[in-house]
TrEMBL record:
It comes from the Bacteria. This is ornithine aminotransferase. Pathway: Amino-acid biosynthesis; L-proline biosynthesis; L-glutamate 5-semialdehyde from L-ornithine: step 1/1. Its cofactor is pyridoxal 5'-phosphate. One of its GO terms (molecular function) is ornithine aminotransferase activity. Residues 1-18 have a biased composition (Polar residues). GO terms for biological process: L-proline biosynthetic process. It is an enzyme of class 2 (transferase). InterPro entries: Aminotrans_3, Aminotrans_3_PPA_site, Class-III_PLP-dep_AT, Orn_aminotrans, PyrdxlP-dep_Trfase, PyrdxlP-dep_Trfase_major, PyrdxlP-dep_Trfase_small. Keywords: Amino-acid biosynthesis, Aminotransferase, Proline biosynthesis, Pyridoxal phosphate, Transferase. Residues 1-20 are annotated as: Disordered.
């Protein structure tokens, strides 16, 4: 690994001279309350280390929900961004730009798929795939107008737009936001028979996360992804894999579907594709499927902008070396072993693949939030999900000793 987690070189400058507590108070007053952040105000970061306004240092075990797979301030990605900032940053797709061709080529080489639709956020990639799948169903599969169905999995997380929350089953994500977009059928996750029973002549696609991240890092049984591939192939249905969180090295392979040697028809990338610098997402897919989109039918002012393409290409360059995947795999074994030792000592169960784990905390030891707060006080940042689960997903460049230290903190917090 060439990238090391360098230490912040200078003390943090308190923002505008205000303390963390003062900044949090202003946020409370002036920001929409759609988040409940841990009470840490980050002022700078490098590698897997972040530093708050007062200069307290923490290890980042969340990595921006995997948007920071390559670490804070990754020098290769920063250099790509800096160079591009001075040349050209935005053209819109009304004109070509000299970074987009290379970005699309690199994504094709990385994924084994043909064609890229560049977007910005993950939710936009999901929305785009929904539109492509529906259009493909009408134009290619011959589904009657307005009848296309997309099969999704219970417990899914695909983003926050009105259409996407229409097929969420999380009441917090949905309640109060209807009316909802029709055309989605929910089946249990990790249940091939349920998908088989749900597929009908109007089914355009099956849309799943190869590992359900927000649900608590739920890993399907071996054979599930290959089974979805086989079922969709046999029934002339598209397989859309949402790898916005699971992809780009996190699980020890470039894509989580590669654990079962599966190639979906449409692949959704986001988060780490922007290197933690700019929002970059993409639908990467089979040329014949992507071909249903024609000029004017879909777009984005910022999608495929030269800065995004330059950073995205540099991200692909990092993955082409295989170093990050290898590191996720090796450190993943360390993570797995340490978590195994905590089962029965505050941990009820955990699931891990690569450098990614969902850890179910025994409620007798505290809620996920309480454990996260206690870990924060001890200098380690994690995030709870679904009450009693905490998620561990450090930057893939984290040093082994830092990972061991952070897991020691978890152990200490659970030991009281
Ligand atoms: C984060 C996430 C999204 C949404 O991405 P945004 O950039 O937040 O819109 C979609 N799918 C999965 C699996 C995600 O983890």
């Amino acid at each position: 690994m060439t990238v090391t987690a360098a230490q912040p070189s200078q003390p943090a400058q308190p923002s505008g001279g205000r303390s963390s507590a003062e900044l949090i108070a202003v946020e409370e007053a002036k920001l929409a309350h759609n988040y409940h952040p841990l009470p840490v105000v980050v002022a700078r970061a490098q590698g897997a280390h972040v530093e708050d306004v007062e200069g307290r240092r923490y290890l980042d075990l969340l990595a921006g929900y995997s948007a920071l797979n390559f670490g804070h301030g990754n020098p290769v990605l920063l250099e790509a961004a800096h160079r591009q900032l001075d040349r050209v940053t935005l053209t819109s797709r009304a004109f070509h730009n000299d970074r987009l061709a290379g970005f699309a080529e690199s994504l094709a080489d990385l994924t084994g798929l043909d064609t890229t639709l560049p977007m910005n956020t993950g939710a936009e990639a999901v929305e785009s795939a929904v539109k492509i799948a529906r259009k493909w169903a009408y134009e290619v599969k011959g589904v009657a107008p307005g009848q296309a169905e997309i099969i999704v999995a219970a417990g899914n997380f695909h983003g926050r737009t009105t259409t996407i929350v229409s097929f969420s089953d999380d009441p917090t994500a949905r309640t109060g936001f209807g009316p909802f977009t029709p055309g989605f059928t929910t089946v249990p996750y990790n249940d091939l028979a349920a998908i088989e029973a749900a597929i009908g002549e109007n089914t355009a696609a099956v849309l799943i996360e190869p590992i359900q991240g927000e649900a608590g890092v739920l890993i399907p049984h071996d054979g599930y992804l290959a089974g979805v591939r086989e079922l969709t192939r046999r029934t002339g249905t598209l397989f859309i894999a949402d790898e916005i969180q699971s992809g780009l090295g996190r699980t020890g392979t470039t894509l989580a579907v590669q654990h079962e040697s599966v190639l979906p028809d449409l692949l959704l990338l986001g988060k780490a594709l922007g290197g933690g610098i700019v929002p970059v997402s993409a639908v990467v897919g089979r040329a014949d499927v992507m071909g249903v989109l024609r000029p004017g039918e879909h777009g984005s002012t910022f999608g495929g902008n030269p800065l995004a393409a330059a950073v995205g290409s540099a991200v692909v360059g990092l993955l082409e070396t295989g170093e990050y995947q290898q590191r996720a795999k090796e450190l993943g074994e360390v993570l797995d072993a340490r978590l195994a030792a905590l089962v029965g000592r505050g941990v009820v169960a955990y699931r891990a693949r690569g450098l990614w784990a969902g850890v179910d905390i025994d409620p007798a030891f505290g809620t996920g939030r309480e454990i996260s707060e206690r870990m924060m006080a001890a200098g380690v940042l994690v995030k709870d999900t679904h009450g009693s689960t905490i998620r561990i997903a450090p930057p893939l460049c984290i040093e082994e000793e830092d990972l061991l230290h952070a897991l020691g903190v978890l152990e200490g917090v659970l030991a009281g």
